[in-house]
Amino acid sequence: MGWTARNMPDQSGRTAVVTGANGGLGYVTARELARRGARVVLACRSEERGAAARERLVRELPEAAERTLLRPLDLGDLSSVRAFAKELPDARVDLLINNAGVMALPYGTTADGFETQFGVNHLGHFALTGLLLERLLAAPAPRVVTVSSGLHALANIDLRDLDSRARYGRWTAYARAKTANLLFTHELARRARHTALIAAAAHPGYADTGLQTAGARLEGRRAVERFMRLGNRLAAQPARGGALPLLYAATAPEVAPDAFIGPRLLARGAPVSSPRAPWTRDDRAAALLWAASERLTGVGAGEYGALEVAA
Predict the structure, then answer these.
(1) How far is CA 213 from the centre of its chain?
(2) Residue-range domain boundaries for the chain
(3) N or C: which end of the chain has fewer CB within 10 A?
(4) Is 174 a catalytic residue?
(5) How far apart are CA 115 and CA 123, in angstroms?
(6) Does the UniProt entry include the keyword tRNA-binding (predicted)?
(7) Which residue has the higher pLDDT, 76 or 214?
(8) Among 66-75, 241-250, 299-308, whose mean pLDDT is lowest?
(9) HSE-up of residue 90 (Cα within 13 Å, Cβ side)
(10) Rounded to an integer, what distance in angstroms lies between the CA atom of residue 40 and that of residue 242?
């Protein structure tokens, strides 16, 4: 049968920050961590949807009411990322689940002028991780789990055009952002190798999370939206199945640094080590992306300094 959420070790006394926890994979991940005793911070762009998610979680797990905290976080606005980190009351963070993301949107930019998919999926989480790093290193066994996708294999990043300004394709830009997630994990794992921090990545396979229809809905492409909904209904696994690789990467004792966890059958199934494109282990590309991310976000040696010494 394989690993399920019931196999998770007890999480009592641990604090987890889950981005995009208002729905889909993020909600299930937050709920199951709370079920196992964790204090969970729901980091959500929409306070209204976040409040509804917290209410739902407390209805399902009344015993978690005092261990569930909602905080606003817009990964497409670096000022929001900084405010979230500054206002987070916890002196220690044991788990950071970099889950929130966008998929295959029409071309747009974040509040800071970055292409939306690269800015939200990668740069926002790069900045958040750096700003929470001191609190992560204060934990005895911290982990950072960043959610990528099997679709990363469609495209490598272009270090000369990280914002896809020269030529934009929604799925290519998505794949590049998901490759960036894996390169970030690769470099973070390398820099953290002399610390207790484990950096890992995960993907949900083909899970019905609502991301698949968002781009078509924004553009009013109703036929495409209906087609994607039908595909989800016929082929996708529910969010509770898609969240298993995230939960495994976050809690299983055997997870190694730079691991990439996904469903056994790629699209669905129990979590196992997942194949990844060879370019996601490119040391030079990972280091160059890291340097570019520091420059673009302004989150650098001051925040990641503890790892710079070890690197």
Answers:
(1) 19
(2) 9-211+238-301
(3) N
(4) yes
(5) 10
(6) no
(7) 76
(8) 299-308
(9) 30
(10) 19
- Per-residue pLDDT tens for 198-213? 999 999 998 776 654 4
With beta carbons less than 8 A apart as the criterion, state whether 57 and 30 touch. yes
Q: Name the residue with higher pLDDT: 233 or 162.
A: 162
Residue found by looking up tokens 């750096």 in the block:
130
Contact between residue 289 and residue 157 where contact means Cβ atoms under 8 Å apart = yes
Mean pLDDT, range 95-121, rounded to an integer = 98
Which tokens is 301 given?
């040696």
Core vs surface per residue 134-168: b (16+ CB within 10 A) or e = bbbbebeebbbbbbbbbbbbbbbbeeeebbbeeee
| C-alpha torsion angle, residues 132, 11, 180, 171 (rounded to 10) | -130
Mean pLDDT of 139-145: 98
SS3 265: coil
Task: Give CA separation, 196 vs 65, 189, 193, 303, in Å.
Answer: 30, 10, 8, 17
Residue whose entry in the numeric block shows the structure tokens 């001051």: 302
| Catalytic residue from among 27, 174, 206, 304 | 174
* Separate counts of helices (H) and strands (E) for the chain: 12, 8
Residue that is written with structure tokens 């890291």 in the block: 290
Distance of CA 219 to the CA centre of its chain: 25
Domain 9-211+238-301 adopts which CATH fold?
Rossmann fold (3.40.50)
pLDDT band of residue 230 (cuts 50, 70, 90) is very low
Please, what sign has the CA dihedral across residues 27, 262, 12, 306? negative
Look up residue 235 and give its two tokens: 């082929």
